[in-house]
Structure formats: structure tokens, C-alpha cells
Design a protein that fits this description.
By secondary structure, the protein is an alpha+beta fold. It folds into 2 domains: 33-81, no CATH class; 86-176, Barwin-like endoglucanases (Beta Barrel), CATH 2.40.40.10. 29% of the residues lie in helices and 26% in strands. It is built from 4 helices and 8 strands; from the N terminus they run αβααββββββαβ. It has helices spanning 2-14, 44-56, 62-80, 154-160, and strands at residues 28-30, 81-83, 86-94, 112-114, 123-128, 131-139, 148-152, 168-176. Strand 5 and strand 6 form a beta hairpin. Helix 2 (44-56) packs antiparallel against helix 3. The radius of gyration is 20 Å and the shape is elongated. Residues 1-28 have low confidence and may be disordered.
């Protein structure tokens, strides 16, 4: 029983922060930010589904009721968690291309990135030091050191570290292709 409580507490702590929204990023990525603040109980669809089950099973055991709550939770998560396409660890730098046309044909502004390998328009999560930012690949690069896997816009880099840091260690997750 003590182990179960400890595991549940660890699970609650692990899912409570945005950067640690789902610890097994290699398999799944949670990109629907509403799930960071809300649970299935706050969505009428899932809440009604559970209460309909409860009304139909009034003589149920606590174990069956918990099992149904977990089933509804898993359905909710299935609607908000999406598989990662690929991931990579390396270094990131920043460059200011604002207002210029990127190699992918779009004007660079906001949260964008340059990658040698990811397709144009790809949605990518970039994580560093417990922080993350979602960017779109709109340009090609970085050029130079092979350890550098992505170039970020100043706005995107600034969400991870001060621009003065220059180069930071990152974990990238390719979430969706353009």
C-alpha cells in the first residue's frame, strides 16, 4: 500500500509541471497545453461518460469504480497525447532572421527554427533545463559544428536561456510534419 501511494504521488508530481508533462517523451508528447491545468473531470464529455457508468452500476465495488475512472482517464489522455515522430539530443544556437525569407519559403517571424534534417513546416518541441518551446522549422541550418542540431529564433531561444548563453544543450522532439 505504501508503495502504491508513493507511486501515485510520484506520478502526480511528474505530470504537474509543463516541462515534465509526460516524462517518457521518446514515446509520447503532450502538446495540448490544456491538459497541464485540467483533468478529464473538467471536460463534460468525459465527466458525463463516467457519471452515466456510475448511474448504471450503483451496486459496484470501489475497485470497479476506480477501474472505470482509469479507463475514462486513459481515453482522455489518448485524445491529448500524441506520438513523437523522432527525437534528438545536441546543441542549439540562435540566429536573427526576422523579416527575411527562410529556405522553406516563408517569412521568418516569432518562434521559428532552422534544421538540417527536419522537414519544412515540422512542429518541434525544444527542451533545455526544464523549459521548453514549440517551434516550426522554416529555414535550413545550423551550419558549422555537427553537434549543433537546431538554430532557434531569438524569441524561441529566449524562452530557454538568455541570448548571451549563445549555445545550449537541448532535447528536440519532432511532433508533427508541416
Amino acid at each position: 500500500m505504501v508503495i502504491l501511494i508513493a507511486l501515485l504521488a510520484l506520478l502526480a508530481i511528474g505530470t504537474a509541471t509543463a516541462a515534465g508533462a509526460h516524462p517518457d517523451v521518446a514515446k509520447w508528447w503532450q502538446y495540448d497545453t490544456s491538459t497541464w491545468k485540467h483533468s478529464w473531470r473538467e471536460y463534460p464529455r468525459y465527466r458525463d461518460e463516467y457519471w452515466t457508468w456510475e448511474r448504471r452500476h450503483r451496486a459496484t465495488t470501489a475497485r470497479s469504480s476506480r477501474s472505470e475512472r482509469l479507463r475514462v482517464r486513459d481515453r482522455y489522455r489518448g485524445a491529448h497525447f500524441h506520438p513523437a515522430i523522432s527525437w534528438q539530443d545536441g546543441e542549439a544556437t540562435w540566429y536573427d532572421g526576422d523579416g527575411k525569407a527562410g529556405a522553406c519559403g516563408q517569412t521568418l517571424s516569432g518562434l521559428y527554427a532552422a534544421s538540417r534534417t527536419l522537414p519544412c513546416g515540422a512542429l518541434v518541441s525544444v527542451r533545455s533545463g526544464g523549459r521548453y518551446v514549440l517551434v516550426r522549422v522554416l529555414d535550413r541550418g545550423p551550419f558549422g559544428d555537427s553537434r549543433r542540431i537546431i538554430d532557434l529564433s531569438p524569441d524561441a531561444f529566449g524562452k530557454l536561456a538568455p541570448l548571451g548563453a549563445g549555445v545550449i544543450e537541448v532535447h528536440t522532439v519532432h511532433l508533427r510534419t508541416g
